[in-house]
């Protein structure tokens, strides 16, 4: 099975790209969606986050994402502690996803990981796809999101590798500054190029 790593900085169009890939019949494991589940009441990350960051749990028993974001904004070193809790749990969910795909005989599978290069995740996939757009478009997209502020945006971007570096390191780059149909056409061409290719990442890192 060929494992494809899909990545890109915030606001660059990962969701659009992933949605198109799914329509092509290829499974996508979304790291952000995994984190969302981990933060919900009963999620595996709730108790350790509550212990590490007092005052960040909501009345419903899940993680209060706004309170956690405020804590992280006030203490830059807190990110490392949070990642030490969350990353192993996300990795385990990704492993389960890949094993399920192999069991079903899938030829390709996609791991959608925002911090792919930043965490060394490119070593655990066979091919990397980066979605990219100019900085002004990225900023506009992100600031239109509910609850987003310029300060929060700058903090998120500061933790991500520069877009130029990601494009340089990628096997394929998708320009998402164009229309959605044009973006989807780029995805279609890339996925067609990957038809029939086999990978070694699963056996080396996930089996």
Could you give a quick summary of the protein structure above?
The chain has about 210 residues and is α/β, with parallel strands linked by helices.
Provide the helix percentage.
40-55%
- Portion of residues in beta strands equals 5-15%
Q: CATH H level of the largest domain: which superfamily?
A: P-loop containing nucleotide triphosphate hydrolases
| CATH architecture annotation name of the largest domain | 3-Layer(aba) Sandwich
The CATH class of the largest domain: Alpha Beta
Count every helix, treating DSSP H or I runs of 4 or more residues as helices: 10
- H/E element string? EHEHHHHEEHHHEHH
CATH topology of the largest domain: Rossmann fold
Largest sheet: 5 strands, parallel
Question: What do you see in this structure?
Answer:
The chain is an alpha/beta fold. The chain has two domains: 1-26 and 106-202, 3-Layer(aba) Sandwich (Rossmann fold), CATH 3.40.50.300; 32-105, no CATH class. The protein has ten helices and five strands. It has helices at residues 14-23, 31-39, 46-52, 65-74, 78-103, 135-143, 150-158, 163-169, 180-193, 201-206; strands at residues 2-7, 27-30, 108-112, 127-132, 172-175. The longest helix is centred in the middle third of the chain and has 26 residues, at 78-103. The radius of gyration is 17 Å and the shape is globular.
Q: What's the topology here?
A:
Layout: E1 2-7, H1 14-23, E2 27-30, H2 31-39, H3 46-52, H4 65-74, H5 78-103, E3 108-112, E4 127-132, H6 135-143, H7 150-158, H8 163-169, E5 172-175, H9 180-193, H10 201-206
Parallel strand pairs: 1-3, 1-4, 2-3, 4-5
Helix pairs in contact: 1-9, 2-5
């Amino acid at each position: 099975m060929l494992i494809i790593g899909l990545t890109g900085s915030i606001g660059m169009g990962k969701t659009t790209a992933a949605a198109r890939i799914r329509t092509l019949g290829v499974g996508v494991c979304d790291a952000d969606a995994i984190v969302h589940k981990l933060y919900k009441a009963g999620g595996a990350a709730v108790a350790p986050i509550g212990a590490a960051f007092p005052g960040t749990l909501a009345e419903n028993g899940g993680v209060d994402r706004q309170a956690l974001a405020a804590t992280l904004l006030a203490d830059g070193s807190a990110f490392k502690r949070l990642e030490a809790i969350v990353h192993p749990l996300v990795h385990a969910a990704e492993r389960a996803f890949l094993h399920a795909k192999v069991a079903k005989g899938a030829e390709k599978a996609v791991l959608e990981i925002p911090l792919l290069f930043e965490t060394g995740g490119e070593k655990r996939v066979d091919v990397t796809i980066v979605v990219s757009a100019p900085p002004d478009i990225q900023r506009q997209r992100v600031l239109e999101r509910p609850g987003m502020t310029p300060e929060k945006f700058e903090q998120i971007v500061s933790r991500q590798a520069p877009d130029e570096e990601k494009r340089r390191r990628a096997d394929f780059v998708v320009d998402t500054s164009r229309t959605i149909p044009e973006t989807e056409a780029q995805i279609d061409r890339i996925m067609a190029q990957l038809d029939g290719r086999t990978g070694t990442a699963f056996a080396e890192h996930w089996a």
